[in-house]
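P.,

For your records, the input lines for the assembly:
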Amino acid sequence: MTLSYELPLLLLLLLTACAAVLVKDLISAVLILGSYSFFLALVWAWLGAPDVAFVEAVVGAGLATVFFLLTLLSTAPKDTHIRRHAPPKAAMLLLPLLAALLLYATSDLPRFGDPQSPASVHVSPHYLKNSLADTRTTNVVTAVLMDYRALDTLIETAVVFTAGIACWLLLRRDVK
Amino acid sequence: MIQSSYDSVIVRRIGAILVPLVQLFALYVLFFGQYGPGGGFVAGVMIGTSLIMDLLVFGREGKAPTAAERALSGDGIGLVVFAFVGGLCLIGGGEFLNYSDMPVPGIDGASRRYVGILLTQVGVAVDVAVAAVSIVFSLSRDDSLGVPHE
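Structure tokens returned:
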């Protein structure tokens, strides 16, 4: 694995994530979060998942940024600075412990790109082998999403519909 | 906030070029999703984003807001399209969402599944696009926009 551009990419990802949390101005934080999504999309593309990269770029960097900006602009635009308190002592103690625990747990994960990892020996070979003959669809991701796992996608669509309805119910003005 | 068109000729000019381009690309992503990256979700978000952009740039005078406002009463149509395709498979004598039993004459099972994927993707795209536009309408608290008057 060459580290010529992956390392700067991951560093930029970390940098933008920290900056989005630490910056005081909320509008800047939203824009930095958009650039974070863009770098994350590049990471997905690097990992060989162009579908996920596409969604991340369009939803994370595009639509979510627009939603955040509209929210900030339609709430009080002058009060966009956060007042910060020092984090409690328990959090300062427990969060590094949690991080250490998670780092310890990563030692059990399969190696990066391991063909024998459980995720790539269960049902993926079946989809990869048969999706073209079964569905005439060359993009396996689409075949899995829309055909093999169509019920999941139906429920996901219902979730999106529910989100739209919930926003409308919560934010609508009582116009008489 | 999104009452009138944006007061800058550059923004309006760029918007006029960009909005149809985004919509065209969204259609490409929607119908090319079976051969390359993309599909219903992304295409829906892109169509929704193009309508939002039209709304923010041209305000209420544009053509898109009226279309979007009309589309809002169709919230859920995409979901109905998706579920209807599933129901068609039931009518054809198979399981729910098993497209190979869709009652489309003249083509074999694999092609039926192809058609099923295409139709459900259109459903997902419509659902996501309407949801995105509807959330923006809800967020922009504006007397004359969005919520239909009772």
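Two observations worth noting. Chain B has a mean pLDDT of 81. The radius of gyration of chain B is 18 Å.

Regards
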